[in-house]
Amino acid sequence: MHRITTLVACALLGLACSLSPVARSQPAAGTHHTLWSVKGKTNTVYLLGSVHFLRPSEQLPAAVDAAYKDAEQLVMEIDMDDLDPLAAQETTMELGMLPEDQTLESELGAGAYAKVARQAQDMGVDPQIINHFRPWLAALTLVQLQLLKQGLDPESGVEKRLTALAVSDGKKITGLETLQEQLGMLANLSRDQQREFLLYSVADAENAGREIDEMIAAWRAGDIKALGQILSREFNQFPDLYRPLTVDRNRRWAPHIEALLNEHDDYLVVVGALHLVGKNSVIELLEKDGYTVAQQ
To answer: What does pTM read for this prediction?
Structure first.
């Protein structure tokens, strides 16, 4: 079973950047959440495993609300409250558009492009629009449209909700990376990697809903073992995609998070859920550096 859609949805997009829904069932009393805490010298840093698309009716767990209220500052994958939509669109187009003398069809070949075009049509998009996209941007576009078709809303995602609260409450938000860096990771994938990314996204479209439901059920229950198993399958099937999008980022983020433990303010750090589980996760990296990380 192909799982590239789940990998993209949960590990990448925070801009976009991990597109994933939340199941409607609520966790049983006493269960854990994808939320951890680390004690610093004089403060607490909370680590929240996020999902970036939610249904508008979905309620965040009470533990997340409590961590938000306790934190004086928030840290996200990118600085959400200062994100300029027009600048973000310009950056996306700059990195995601093919040269004028090239098309997606010429990149993929007629047979492969026909599959992509059919998927675009199924999503209500004129294939000629994405025919000018680089494969990575075409893949993200189709994945996002698939999630929207399932009734999931990026405006209702964890980051957007917490950003709105933080702006209202006057809490500072900072980012672990810039949008340029985030999109640049995708744009710098090799031609073959981008092609694989797109074609597996299209091939997996029929399974996407079920696979994401499975993953979100684990997220909802705070089942880090199940989430870790999903991530392990991703790595085994797509190591060249997995490494730059998750492991390399985790290693860059960990020192920044450790530096927060020397501050006085309490922090809530919000990143895609699959960055916090499995081998070489942010949690594991912190533990290797001697920190005690407690799941909430």
So the answer is: 0.87
